[in-house]
Amino acid sequence: MKYIAPQISLDAFHCPLCGTYSHMDWSWLSTHDRGSDYLEAMCSHCKKASLWRATQTKQSQFYSKATEGEMLFPDFGLAPLPEQDMPDDVARDYLEAARIFSKSPRGAAALLRLGLQKLCKHLGEKGKNINDDIRALADKNTVPPLVVKVADTVRITGNNAVHPGEMSDEDFDHVAEKMFELINFIVKKGITEPKELEALYALTPEGPRKSAEARDGQSKKA
Prior knowledge:
Blueprint (H helix, E strand, L loop, with lengths): L11 E3 L6 E8 L9 E6 L5 E11 L4 E10 L14 H13 L4 H18 L7 H10 L6 H17 L6 H34 L3 H16 L1
Antiparallel strand pairs: 1-2, 2-3, 3-4, 4-5
Helix pairs in contact: 1-2, 2-3, 2-4, 2-5, 3-4, 4-5
């Protein structure tokens, strides 16, 4: 399903702690019978809470509702959690980008571009030119061909993040946000799904498996 980013007072979104789309129970934090600007959102799935600070509220006779604010914990929660099979060095860039995304979309875009270069290298490419690497991965059917068009946007965004060009701040906000999803998608297609298929293949009885391998070998020679 589509990723729903955390937002203050939203009834449900993808939990920044467990990654599950879940209902959130909001409650104001107070000390010694005094109110504060801080809230917590308890995930109904993992039962863990994110911490928020309200910057604007809507008051009524019966309640006070936060209408604007920022998430304080965890500090990377505005982006989807990295895929479990993401290589460690790629995940470091990904998480650093997530931590600064709300304050510096340009910086996040540059880090994500670097992470994508490293990911291409993990998938067997040179890791020097994103454009060439993604096209090579599409030619090998490692990723769908449409990813090439998306990666072109990533490449342009990353370049302009380092060397300011034609993109506006709004462009960076939107495209950098989608870059998190793109990297997760490539990890899923290039690493996770092949690993799952290999595990499924290993469950096949040895006899049929060897027969299938022999047929594949003969078809390649022909």
